[in-house]
Fold this sequence. Notes:
The protein has helices spanning 3-24, 30-46, 50-58, 65-70. It is mainly alpha-helical. The two termini are 27 Å apart.
Amino acid sequence: MKIQLLVRRFAGIFILVSLLLAHYHSPYWLWFTAFVGFNLLQSSFTNFCPLEMALKKAGVGGSGSEQVKNSASCCAK
């Protein structure tokens, strides 16, 4: 699975969980929602994503480029 999809899934889960916690526990959980949103925004400009780095170190996911490199193509030399 591509690592970008995993990052999006984690972000979605984190946002939904923090919204539930803000509703049922404490409104301070909205700061976590803001943190996730800020990380998504800054990563779109800087291409730096802490979750992506952690997933790569854990050996989870892949960029998908390995499949492209290993696949036979009519244009490959």
